[in-house]
Input
Amino acid sequence: MRVINYGSLNLDYVYQVPHMVREGETLAASGMETFLGGKGLNQSIALARAGVSVCHAGCVGEDGQVLLDYLKQNGVDITWVQRVEGKSGHTIIQVDASAQNSILLFGGANRKQTAEQIRQVLEQGEVGDYLVLQNEINGIDAIMRYGKEKGMKLVLNPSPINEAILNAPLEMADYLLVNEIEGSAITGEPEPEAMVRVFRKRYPDTALLLTLGTAGAIYADEKELVRQEAIRVKAVDTTAAGDTFTGYFIAGLLKNRPMAEIMRRCAAASALAVSRQGAAPSIPKKSEVEEFLLLQDR
Ligand code: RIB
Output
């Protein structure tokens, strides 16, 4: 069984700010660093660091060698990442004094998947393979439909929310992974409990993972509902915490671990990510997660 992650690759330009810049305001940043990121890349790195063999598909631009090298160094198969003309995807991320972020995303090469590339990638898919998707690339609707036709298990993180993803066949996903903002945009409900009810009713064949930041996370499918508290750490930068959760979640599914155990490992992995700066570099290895969990048990 293979895991194919068809997703974005970004250069993240990260600025430390006292607060998020307001309309009309000019604000001085106290620091700036460039990190490798993109929800797609982060999730592939999280899968790899959780011990899963993963094949990444997507596009980088002429400046994208650094992204390819990073995936390769981390053991991710990059056979299906194409180089295209123009710039790679990039973001401008503000991280404020309370470690929260706001992200401005430029799609760049991530928006250049062709029908031909989609066909070539998904031709590799077999029944039971996992297809991991986010919403930072073009062609999500077609990728979902093709993946489903091939009998792949669809894991969709519909982020960022836009018109296209709201019109995509979300009911085809085997797993929907959303945070509270995405959950609210999809269901129209402000409260987590109500979101879960709407998701379960509207997408009865789709398992839900709702992450709630410091309020933890909820997993719900037709058989069980599992709540997980967040593990408290000194937060430095919340970027990629959700992506870390996603990678460790899929790793747990592949290992057939009980859901409560999967959720606990995910909470530990994302707590470690939050305590470090940047996107991909903040994602912990399996051994670090296990050590951290042992410390929690003491
Ligand atoms: O989820 C975090 C990621 O979102 C960042 O790495 C950034 O690239 C944006 O895509």
User: Anything to note?
Assistant: Residues 8, 10, 12, 37-39, 42, 91, 103, 105, 136, 239-240, 242-243, 279 surround alpha-D-ribofuranose (CB under 6 Å).
